[in-house]
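Annotated sample (chain length 174).
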Amino acid sequence: MIHKSILVAALLAASAYTPAQAQGSGPSDPQIAHIAYTAGVIDIAAAELALKKSTNATVRSFAQEMVRDHKAVNVMALDLVKKLKVTPADNPTSKALSKQADADKRRLAALKGSAFDRAYLANEVAYHKAVNGALDKTLIPSSHNAELKSLLQTGLKLFSEHQAHAEHLAAELK
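Output written by the structure step:
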C-alpha cells in the first residue's frame, strides 16, 4: 500500500516553485541545499526504522544501502556548503517535508512484520519518485552554483537507482 501523503508532500516541495520562478526567483542555493539535506535525513531515519523493525534480510539490506548512500551524499553536501561558506536556509518546503516524515514514521512504526516491510518499501518508492522529480524539475534547474548543481545531479542518478531498487523489491513482496 503506497502512503500517498509523503508523495503529496514531496510533490508539493517540487511544485513550490514554478518553472517561471525557477528562472528568476525560485529557491535560493541555500534553500536548495537545506531541502536536499533534509530529504536525505528523512530517508536515513526511515531506513533506520526499517533496520529496527524488519526481520526480512532483503528489506534490511536495502535499508542499510539507504543509510550508507544518503549519509555519504549528506556528508558531501555539508562539505560543499562549508567550502562555499554557505549556510543552508530552512524554508517552508523543508519544514513541510519534515512534518510529513514525522507522521509517516509514526504510521510505519505502528506496523509489524510483512505489513511493515511492504509499507516501508512502498513509502521508499513514492518518496524517491517525488524527490527525484523535485531534483529534476526544480532543484537542479534552480541551482546557480555549478558545484551544487553537480552534487544534485549525482544525487539524482544515485536516487534514481534507489527508486528502481525499491520498485523491484516492492514488486517481489506483493
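Annotation: The helical segments are 4-15, 19-23, 29-53, 57-84, 92-109, 113-142, 146-173.
Annotation: Residues 1-23 have pLDDT under 50 and may be disordered.
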